[in-house]
Amino acid sequence: MAEEKMQFKAEIQQLLSMMIHSVYSNNEIFVRELAANAADAIDKARFESLTDASKVRDWEIRFTADKDAKTLAITDNGIGMSREELIKNIGTIAYSGTKAFMAAMEKAKEEGKAATPELIGQFGVGFYSAFMAADKVRIDTRKAGEDKAWSWTSDGLGEFTIDESDKAEIGTTITMYLKDDFAEYLDYWRISSVIRKYSDYIEYPIRMKHTVKNGDVETEEDSTLNSMKAIWLRNESDVKEEEYDAFYQHVSMDYGKPARRILFNAEGVTEFKSLLFFSGHMPFQFRFGEKTNKGVHLYVRRVFITDNCPGLLPEYMGFVSGVVDSSDLPLNVSRETLQDNPMIARINKSLTHRIFSELSKMMDKDRENYEVFYREFSRMLKEGVHMDYANRSKLQDLLLFESMNNPAGKLISLKEYSDAMPATQKAIYYISGDSRDALEQSPQLEMLRKQGYDVLFLLEPVDEFVLGDLGKYAEKDLASVSKGDVKFDEVVQKELDEKTKKAGEESKDLVEYLKKTLEDRVKDVRFTGRLTESPCCLVSDANDPTLNMQRLMRAMDKNAPVVKRILELNMDNSLIKAMKRLHERNAEDPALKEYAEMLYDQAVVAEGGELRDPVKFAKRTASLMAAAIEKELSAD
Prior knowledge:
Elements: E1 4-7, H1 10-21, H2 29-49, E2 61-66, E3 71-76, H3 83-92, H4 96-110, H5 119-122, H6 130-133, E4 134-142, E5 149-154, E6 159-165, E7 171-178, H7 188-198, E8 206-214, E9 217-224, H8 241-252, E10 260-266, E11 272-278, H9 284-287, E12 296-300, E13 303-306, E14 320-326, H10 342-365, H11 367-387, H12 392-396, E15 400-403, E16 412-413, H13 414-420, E17 427-432, H14 436-440, H15 446-450, E18 456-458, H16 463-470, E19 472-473, E20 476-480, H17 490-506, H18 508-517, E21 522-528, E22 536-539, H19 547-556, E23 565-570, H20 574-585, H21 590-606, H22 614-635
Parallel strand pairs: 2-8, 12-14, 17-18, 17-20, 21-23
Antiparallel strand pairs: 1-6, 2-3, 3-7, 4-5, 4-7, 5-6, 8-9, 10-11, 11-14, 12-13, 15-16, 15-18, 19-20, 22-23
Helix pairs in contact: 2-7, 10-11, 11-16
């Protein structure tokens, strides 16, 4: 078959341009990425060999440097690629992570942050890092079971060529024609140091020949660059922190430090060894809406089986990465049936219990670091409340919130809130909104603040769903101050009930007038004891969604109905008393209708809502201001 030229797709071309023209301080990562890809190819071939003995080989990865030709080649004897796979995987179709990677890089650029080569591995675009170091890249590959081998060649500037290759061995060789300023990577010791740093725990030997001088005699030696030690099988006291950090980086593709490490061995009905890590920060793929189950790698007696086993851990524990090595699963276990394997279910239960134990310990004994972790991964834990009913009681104790009686930024748990409640308080109160500043000004908090009650501030969109799922905590209702009635100390409540009843009777005509005037906007009008300063506020009926919940529902469905709310009046407020007198003097006064509508608009503004007609509200306000100024001037 004659050589064939093809064009890169636009997103691949954009990615390659970034690799070619960007200057990274950490440019050695291309070695790490290509070694990791080679190990992945061997993983796939090794798995197939479990059921097909003819595919068993002495697995290895080999680096070969040619200083005269200025080429560095990376060879594996893994799965190899067919012509179609070569075009699909390398040349034309961007992986799902490519666009997210580009978006992440653009975001970093907009925020004035340095380019981050560590992102490359997270988004599955590791091969393209070769163009950081090379003017031209050639791939020669032969797939197991196929007669023909194929080559792919490109300078990364817009097109690539596909041709037949004379490669005889199964596997893949990537040959890089290095740029002049990457000549150091032709040196054995440079490659060796990068492999030890990033790839020491790859379980296949990574080899490279190098020249050894003994006096005047030079000999070629073939050295293995990585230790291949199963770090999870070693005694914890024998492993250095930097070794654990390097392994975490290897399995998680997060090149920072983990927030927590768990070395856990299970014995009994199900036996396995595990080394798990809590991520230090939210992986970029999660930030861009891409969920993955590839955090925990499953091994059977040190044989890699898969890095995509959803049954190992609940989906919301995406912050966990590491290794689980089972002694009980059969080596030829099918990846397709893992999800339904009862042993996987038992491992899941054991791991989940251990992770909850570690999170609780972290929260109690290392609160500062737990809060750093929580700010990154609270969304996942809250998702667990909704998804995992069996572990809801454990999850609820891990939740943290800001609250009215604590300074901004301080987080408290439901237990801490409950323990600090006055004996007279019967429910755990919360209010939801977009910002703390807005919530602190809410009229709905006035009497609660006066009584010394605390109120949780729910600042994340998911929070109100979460507390709605819980319903109760420690036998106390979780109640929104934005709906229904708020109950206080029995003595105070009795006094407030008597006052509101009396106000309702004495101002019955005004209440009815407001109901009729505002009937297209409110469900009801009534007096309340929850206000101490503001003239009014809006609340939802006990069985209706709050304003914040309605906003979320409309964000998900533009056709979601608008549910009318209740206008509550402050019986002691001078404005309400003045409106009562005006209504008693002349219920037909046109100004009264204006004031009624402004009263409602004022309640909307106070809670940060959107006015139906802000221009009209502004004109009315200006008119009142002018009248007030004229009155002041005439008094002079």
